[in-house]
Write a structure and sequence with these properties.
Helices cover 29% and strands 17% of the residues. It has 957 residues and is α/β, with parallel strands linked by helices. The strands form eleven sheets. It has a seven-stranded mixed β-sheet with strand order 15-14-29-28-27-16-17, with helices on both faces. Strands 33-37-34-36-35-38 form a six-stranded mixed β-barrel.
Length: 957
């Protein structure tokens, strides 16, 4: 193995379909119109020296190293800013050019430290490379004049020198090595869209400045790593590279955080990760990253990671480390004993949205074929199950319609109940880039998220009251229908016309107008009408939504309403449009695809179908139960009733992530065997009897499927620290339960998935290695996958309009609980925080805070930073207050990343009518001052510490 070297063409690729031909160094080159001479030369195999140019950002033309000669033109233009044109004759090397380049390089080196042997970039320095490329052998200019290199000059303090900034936990900024090429500044602006960096000063006094000469940690920098990746010197360098040294080989793999599914190069020394570098050929991220994927992988080596299997008879006992065989035998004996005592349906399992497709497939196979029932569910139950229901009903598929590249053709983006800047930051950067190019943005959210206003972006914000999504989307439809803005031709061709007429008559009723619904929604009718007109008439309209849509009692209804809106305006079936759920976890789409719901086999086919079941029974050589099993909430209820007594939980922390924590505690406490398969002793493990240590994404092979249905390889870069990959653990547990599953590699599991799942029929590891990734459906009709769904027609045939009546949630405010709590995520943390809390990301978010409007805070005597008691009908907790106008009066907001807070002790059992997805986003609460953690938090913490005791290993005789 060796390092995977990616070609840097110097300037971005032109999308023009018109071609031009020119001659470079005697060779004819044909390139798209708008291509720079630098890129055209690189296409022809001629690398022109450069320092300020890189193909991730637009041409800048400041370093003057890439100068060329063009016959018939005077001077020496920069090749990065000069476009290729028909008939040009270009020379990239001549005596004049050599002298110019050497002179430029001399000036750079005259104000640069010559500590190359001890420099962190030694072996990976473009300045060093370019000095060699131009033939620089000596520098006529010494350090006698002004310089930025030394702290002292001529025995006096050098005012031009600046100390190294090491405030960021992941990288350093050494101003003495900066050549002011502006690549970092441009990457921050053009790629990330944060505009945190600038060039301060002029001439010799120019320098890169985070904000107003702040530290990197204290500035608006979001630590995405784009600046570090762009830097051609050691000015910006990963601390891991400084500590470990330059990597010697790399492996392409997929990030294990959010549903964007960024592709990375894991750059290694032996089995040690040196750094994770975003891969430019990754079709989801196109070479960009966020702080989590780029830097927050240190949890894989955290001291709290459990590497040995453990068992105990009672949850009050300390854990006892045992061999794998003993753990499997103990678990299987417990589970079989439960079935013998309580019946076949008394056990079940929960698959993981953080594990691979192959591992998820094996868990549901174990439950159906080994346990003999269909009591399998997944975390999508509590996040995007309404997406599966709503989109399957209207379009015929349970997934988003577009690829992420589609956003480049979007004219109007509507974000409903999502905050991509925090939860899907790489996609947010791509979207913001399109917005800076002129696309319009509508944000429908109770909170003024980071997407509402960012540099050069101003959205039309509809701050609705939590729980009124259906009323708002129906009001948008009202405007579109009553003002004649629907795309009648599209509807007549692609949809059921009679159903459309019924729906149109429904939404046209006066009670659904923006004016009539404003009393419910709190949205200004003028703004809502403007939003509807923009979406319907503004060109390609794309809707992106998140958990603020699905985690409601009418989550499925809102998804259907969104689909209705897209169909009515013809915004389906081409690039730039669509309905796009932003999936929360790295493989939540894949866990659904793999048959993790109790009523569906892989490929979303109902378990009751005889023909479908026959296929699985023939290949698995077992008889399957035709009856759907229990959903997660049903499992909890049945456990408390005494009929569901054993559960296998792979890679999910149901105690921290599921609603009404006290109810979950009661359910887990009632069970006789809880098996937790994870990296750490999570909150669920406090009530477990068996702990099977898991393997991280760096330690196994497999595939993830991201939010755009993109199936990507996960490649092992190091041996499993626990000794077994997760797929091997499940196979061994199945064997102990009496079910033989014979696979020697995850590729064989994928072959079985492809044989049984029509949408995956064309998927294989060989194809993924060849193409990089594919989007399902991938089959005979679409051998290379399907980037955009429903082109020319819907999967179900005709698109189905469904009437969406607004029904207010049963969770109401009142005198005791006058405020509405809604929840969300923050950029630096992920889900329940099990991974990110064990990295340096805690520097940005050390605790969950409660956002409260200044008016509500003043009424309650709450100051910023005060401890407050957050109380609902379900329970109470305490946390610190953050006073902000990001939330409206009457609304409070918090995150759920820290178990110390246990925000879900507040949330209730109300759920979506179709899927049981919990109503996390609407909880009636009261806020009052507090002196610190509540009694419940103290008792919970005491129980957790007691439960996590590990008995010392017995001395060998």
């Amino acid at each position: 193995m060796s390092l995977i070297e990616e070609i840097d063409y110097g300037t971005p690729r032109s999308k023009s379909e018109t071609m031009v031909t020119l001659t470079i160094d005697g060779n004819q080159v044909t390139v798209p119109e708008g291509t720079s001479i630098m890129r055209a030369a690189m296409d022809a195999g001629h690398q022109i020296p450069k320092l300020c140019a890189t193909d991730m950002v637009d041409a800048f033309g400041s370093c003057r190293l890439c100068v060329v000669e063009i016959e018939g033109r005077a001077g020496t233009p920069a090749s990065c800013t000069t476009p290729a044109m028909n008939g040009l004759v270009v020379h990239t090397q001549s005596e004049r050019l050599k002298k110019l380049r050497k002179g430029v390089m001399e000036l750079y080196i005259s104000d640069h430290p010559l500590d190359c042997l001890t420099c962190g970039a030694n072996g990976d320095c473009e300045l060093q490379d370019m000095a060699g490329a131009v033939g620089l052998r000596d520098v006529r200019y010494g350090y006698e004049g002004e310089n930025h290199v030394f702290a002292k000059s001529h025995g006096e303090i050098n005012a031009a020198w600046m100390p190294k900034d090491e405030s960021n936990p992941y990288f350093t900024y050494d101003p003495s090595k900066c050549i002011v090429c502006s690549r970092c500044v441009r990457a921050c602006e053009e790629v990330q869209g944060t505009f945190a960096l600038t060039i301060s000063g002029r001439g010799f006094d120019s320098r890169v400045s985070p904000g107003m000469s702040e530290s990197f940690l204290g500035s608006e920098c979001v630590s995405c790593g784009a600046c570090v990746q762009a830097c051609p010197t050691a000015t910006l360098t990963e601390k891991s590279v400084i500590e470990i040294g330059q990597p010697e080989h790399s492996v392409v793999t997929t990030c294990a955080y959010c549903g964007v599914g960024c592709t990375f190069k894991a750059e290694m020394r032996g089995e040690e990760v040196v750094r994770m570098v975003p891969y430019k050929d990754g079709k989801a991220n196109r070479g960009h990253s966020c702080v989590k994927g780029r830097f927050a992988w240190g949890y894989t080596n955290h001291k709290e990671r459990i590497l040995n299997p453990m068992i105990r008879e009672r949850i009050e006992d300390p854990w006892r480390e045992v061999s794998w065989d003993e753990a499997f035998s103990f678990a299987a004996t417990k589970m079989r004993g439960i079935q013998k005592k309580y019946g076949r349906d008394a056990i079940g399992g929960i698959t993981s949205s953080r594990c691979t497709n192959e591992e998820t497939y094996l868990v549901q196979k174990l439950i159906r074929a080994g346990f003999g029932n269909n009591n399998v569910d997944t975390c999508a139950r509590v996040c995007h199950s309404p997406t599966g229901y709503g989109l399957s009903q209207t379009f015929g598929t349970s997934a988003g319609t577009q690829d992420f590249d589609s956003v480049e053709d979007t004219d109007v983006a509507v974000i409903i109940g999502a905050n991509p800047a925090s939860a899907h930051p790489v996609f947010a950067s791509r979207l913001k880039k399109r917005l800076r190019q002129g696309a319009k943005l509508i944000v429908i959210d109770p909170r003024r998220t980071e997407m509402v206003e960012s540099p050069h972006v101003k959205a039309l914000h509809l701050p609705l009251m939590p729980g009124t999504n259906v009323a708002v989307v129906t009001a948008l439809a009202h405007v579109i229908v009553t003002e004649g803005l629907a795309d009648e031709a599209f509807v007549r061709e692609r949809c059921d016309w009679s159903e459309f007429e019924e729906w149109a008559a429904f939404v046209a009723q006066p009670k659904h107008s923006p004016e009539a619904t404003a009393i419910l929604t709190g949205v200004d009718p003028k703004d809502l009408r403007e939003a509807a007109r923009i979406y319907a008439t503004g060109g390609n309209g794309a809707i992106y939504y998140g958990l603020g849509v699905t985690e409601h009692s009418q989550g499925s209804t809102t998804v259907i309403a969104i689909a209705n809106l897209a169909m009515a305006t013809g915004n389906i079936g081409r690039p730039g449009v669509g309905v796009n759920p932003l999936r929360g976890q790295n493989n939540v789409q894949g866990s659904c695809d793999m048959g993790s719901f109790p009523h569906e086999l892989p490929g979303y086919r109902h378990i009751s179908g005889d023909a479908v079941r026959d296929q699985f029974e023939a290949l698995w050589n077992v008889k399957l139960n035709p009856e759907p099993g229990l959903r997660i909430p049903n499992m909890f209820d049945a456990a408390i009733e005494g009929s569901f007594m054993g559960i296998y939980v792979q890679g999910e922390d149901i105690l921290q992530s599921d609603p009404n924590t006290k109810h979950v505690v009661a359910a887990l406490s009632a069970m006789e065997c809880v098996i937790v398969h994870d990296l750490f002793l999570n909150e669920t493990a406090n009530y477990a009897h068996v702990f099977l240590p898991g393997s991280s994404f760096l330690e196994k092979d497999g595939t993830f499927t991201n939010a755009e249905r993109r199936i990507q390889r996960v490649r092992k870069v190091m041996s499993p620290k626990n000794g077994m990959a997760d797929w091997e653990v499940t196979i061994a547990l199945a064997k102990a339960m009496g079910l033989e599953m014979n696979y020697s590699h995850p590729s064989e599991i994928m072959d079985e998935i492809a044989a049984l799942t029509p949408t995956f029929a064309g998927v294989s590891y060989a194809k993924l290695d060849e193409l990089g990734s594919v989007q399902w459906p991938c089959n005979e009709k679409a051998p290379e996958g399907t980037p955009v769904m429903h082109i020319g027609g819907f999967v179900r045939g005709k698109g189905k309009f469904i009437v969406t009546e607004y029904v207010a949630t049963d969770e109401r405010t009142g005198p005791r609980f006058p405020l509405l709590l809604t929840t969300g995520r923050i950029l630096s943390q992920y889900n329940v925080g099990a991974q990110t809390r064990r990295t340096e990301n805690v520097v940005w978010h050390a605790e969950d805070r409660l956002e409260i409007h200044p008016h509500d805070a003043e009424q309650r005597g709450v100051r910023d930073g005060d401890w407050v008691r957050l109380q609902s009908r379900a329970g109470e907790t305490t946390l610190r207050a953050e006073i902000t106008d990001r939330v409206s009066p009457g609304v409070v907001y918090t995150t759920f990343h820290h178990p110390d807070t246990q925000a879900n002790v507040i949330t209730t059992d109300f759920s979506d009518w179709a899927t049981n997805c919990p109503e996390y986003k609407v909880t009636a609460v009261q806020i009052s001052p507090s002196n610190g953690p509540s009694d419940w938090q103290k008792s919970y913490d005491e129980q957790a510490r007691h439960s996590r005791r590990i008995a010392p290993a017995e001395a060998a005789e």
